[in-house]
Write a structure and sequence with these properties.
This protein has nine helices and two strands, in the order H-H-H-H-H-H-E-H-H-E-H. By secondary structure, the protein is mainly alpha-helical. The protein has two domains: 10-102, Orthogonal Bundle (Recoverin, domain 1); 103-188, Orthogonal Bundle (Recoverin, domain 1), CATH 1.10.238.10. The protein has a two-stranded antiparallel ribbon with strand order 1-2. The chain is elongated. This is EFCB1 protein. InterPro entries: EF-hand-dom_pair, EF_Hand_1_Ca_BS, EF_hand_dom, Recoverin.
Length: 194
């Protein structure tokens, strides 16, 4: 049984070294060990199976300083490819590969998935409003904040959209390729340089 478990572990490492192309085998091994440690935490709902939302969000907060709950929830959803509310070892390593070292193309796709709250292939006016609402500091009057956010949404739509009131992946990609600073236009969902 121990031999079989070791063989499975080796197959997992070999497979991940191929699929998470931005990490070498040693890095994959370290990430799998970290995953196993996190998955064994008693606070984890899916002990020894994967990472639940709270453990994942805690790691993202402690390690990468991510604090926005709406964005963290979307990052979790983007990592959780099979939508089972649990991050597997494969989802963990492959997600971190893009998150930490992805190409511009991979990061554009990742950010778009984070911002497309309902998964319909567009970032709508409502989605932009929801994302920006939590990113901006609160003003003395809540109304002032909402007006400012509406103005930002209008600016984003003018800059990114094809005059249809929503941003498609192609709109987003074209805009980001022209101005890389707009990659995280609707909230910080990637680690900073540190």
């Amino acid at each position: 049984a121990a031999m079989s478990k070791r063989r499975q572990q080796q197959q997992l490492l070999d497979s991940l070294t191929r699929s998470a192309k931005h990490f070498n085998k040693g890095e994959v091994e370290c990430l799998v060990k970290l995953f196993n440690r996190l998955a064994a935490e008693p606070s984890n709902h899916f002990v020894n199976v994967g990472l639940d939302r709270n453990v994942f969000k805690d790691v993202m907060h402690r390690t990468f300083g991510m604090t926005d709950d709406v964005i963290l929830d979307r990052v979790f959803r983007t990592f959780d490819k099979d939508n089972n509310n649990c991050i597997s070892a494969v989802e963990w390593v492959e997600g971190l590969s893009v998150f930490l070292r992805g190409t511009l193309e991979e990061k554009i796709k990742y950010c778009f998935q984070v911002y497309d709250l309902n998964g319909d292939g567009y970032i709508s006016r409502d989605e932009m409003f929801q994302l920006l609402k939590y990113c901006l500091p609160k003003q003395p009057s809540e109304e002032d904040t909402d007006e400012g956010i509406k103005d930002l949404v209008d600016i984003a739509l003018k800059k990114m959209a094809n005059h249809d009131g929503k941003i498609s992946f192609m709109d987003f990609e074209t805009t980001v390729r022209d101005d890389y600073l707009l990659l995280e236009a609707f909230g910080p969902c990637l680690p900073d340089i540190k």
